[in-house]
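PROTEIN DESIGN WORKSHEET
SECTION A - STRUCTURE
LENGTH: 349
TOKENS:
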């Protein structure tokens, strides 16, 4: 039986027999071929569907590690800043561990589903009059001055948990892909994947290393422009970040792998979001669609060699943001309980 990623990769994670394993059986997510994207790009494209994790995003991989280690170290409370998913995950794993969870989110800038998750799992949630970067600075300060353990991706255990996605991909494909596309926000995940691919390669499990392609939203693209963005703005609230904590690590992943970090517009993100939902059958949140938007943009620019094997991580489930989903979809028609009317409305008669 699969028992979560700590048990699956115990020998490759910084845990010991004394580490209490706090798990919701995260990881082991589907790697789904995407023929529609392959046809569009001339590559062989797969999606790593991280919305299939217990709280609906890749954050659970990092959180099982961060919360297990925090509990091992005697923490009674954890804290995080979040654009939504980290808080949902932290709240769930804290509930599982029986510790308190504090959450700082930018007021009015997180998707409704994520807010609901944090609240339902019992987190103490504060909406801060500021952006994610302000929330992270505040959370860091609180963890320095008070007895509360920080579980943002500046916590190295988070990255170790998240690197296991690379292990799963190498196992599923029999080798590393040629190119790996990811959305980039605080830049922890691209750093974690790169760590995973490098470790797998050093262990002899893969014959090659992928080029890491990261994509930021154009209104929140500090790594692309080389400058902190004071007021980041994008419809993809998950990656609305102006000063990524793992900036240097992401540059290393880009440069050592021979990859790139580019920006995609909100329009490109939205178009990838719709394409994924309507033609691939995978419902992701807007931030997640940035990886696929980036793939399509890179293909158009000739940066995806024909026949190469590409994995795009889609980081979070579309249901996280029902308000956005509903607002962009056509409104449903209401009818009388009548077969002929129904048939007519459905275009069957
Ligand atoms: N995709 C989603 C759905 C996210 O929630 C995030 C980050 C990212 C991509 C970017 O990953 O930060 O490691 O580069 N969400 C964080 C949060 C910041 O608070 O939930 P990253």
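SECTION B - SEQUENCE
RESIDUE ASSIGNMENT:
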């Amino acid at each position: 039986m699969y028992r979560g990623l700590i048990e699956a990769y115990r020998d490759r994670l910084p845990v010991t027999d004394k580490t209490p394993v706090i798990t919701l059986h995260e990881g082991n997510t589907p790697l789904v071929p995407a023929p529609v994207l392959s046809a569009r790009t001339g590559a062989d494209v797969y999606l790593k569907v991280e919305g299939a994790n217990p709280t609906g995003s890749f954050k659970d991989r990092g959180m099982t590690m961060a919360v297990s280690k925090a509990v091992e170290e005697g923490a009674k409370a954890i804290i995080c800043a979040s654009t939504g998913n980290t808080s949902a995950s932290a709240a769930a794993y804290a509930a599982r561990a029986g510790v308190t969870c504090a959450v700082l989110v930018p007021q009015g800038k997180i998707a409704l589903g994520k807010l609901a998750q944090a609240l339902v799992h019992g987190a103490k949630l504060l909406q801060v009059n500021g952006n994610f970067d302000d929330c992270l600075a505040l959370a860091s300060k609180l963890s320095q001055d008070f007895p509360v353990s920080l579980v943002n991706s500046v916590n190295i255990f988070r990255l170790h948990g998240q690197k296991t996605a690379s292990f799963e991909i190498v196992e599923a494909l029999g080798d590393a892909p040629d190119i790996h596309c990811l959305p980039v926000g605080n830049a922890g995940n691209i750093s974690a994947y790169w760590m995973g691919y490098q470790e797998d390669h050093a262990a002899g499990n893969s014959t090659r290393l992928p080029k890491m392609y990261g994509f930021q939203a154009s209104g929140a693209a500090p790594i692309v422009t080389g400058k902190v963005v004071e007021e980041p703005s994008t419809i993809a609230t998950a990656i609305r970040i102006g000063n990524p904590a793992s900036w240097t690590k992401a540059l290393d992943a880009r440069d050592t792998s021979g990859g790139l970090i580019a920006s995609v517009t909100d329009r490109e993100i939205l178009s990838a979001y719709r394409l994924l939902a309507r033609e691939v059958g995978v419902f992701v949140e807007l931030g997640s669609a940035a990886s696929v938007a980036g793939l399509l943009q890179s293909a158009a620019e000739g940066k995806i060699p024909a026949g190469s094997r590409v994995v795009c991580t889609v980081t979070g489930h579309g249901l996280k943001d029902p308000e956005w989903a509903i607002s962009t979809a056509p409104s449903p028609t209401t009818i009388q309980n009548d077969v002929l009317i129904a048939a007519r409305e459905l275009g069957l008669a």
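SECTION C - NOTES
The chain has 15 helices and ten strands.
Residues 5 and 155 are 18 Å apart (CA to CA).
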